[in-house]
Amino acid sequence: MTPAAQLLERIRTTEARIGIIGLGYVGLPLAVEFAKAGFDVTGFDVDESKNTAINAGTSYIPDVPAAELSEVVHAGRLRATSDMSKLGDMDVVDICVPTPLRKTKDPDLSYVVKAVEAAAKVLKRGQLVILESTTYPGTTDEVVQPMLEAGGLKAGEDFLLAFSPERVDPGNAQYTTKQIPKVVGGHGAASTEVAAALYGRVVSSVVPVSSTRVAEMVKLLENTFRAVNIGLVNEIALMSRKMDIDVWEVIDAAKTKPFGFMPFYPGPGLGGHCIPIDPFYLSWKARQSGFECRFIELAGQVNGSMPEHVLQLVSDALNSVKKPINGSRIHLFGIAYKRDVNDMRESPALDVLELLIRRGAVVTYTDPWVPKLADGHHTLRSIDTDTAIADGFDCAVITTDHTAFDYARLGALPLIVDTRNALKGASGPNIHRL
Ligand SMILES: NC(=O)c1ccc[n+]([C@@H]2O[C@H](COP(=O)([O-])OP(=O)(O)OC[C@H]3O[C@@H](n4cnc5c(N)ncnc54)[C@H](O)[C@@H]3O)[C@@H](O)[C@H]2O)c1
Question: Quick one: 428 exposed, middle or buried, by C-beta within 10 A (0-12, 13-18, 19+)?
Answer without folding.
Answer: exposed
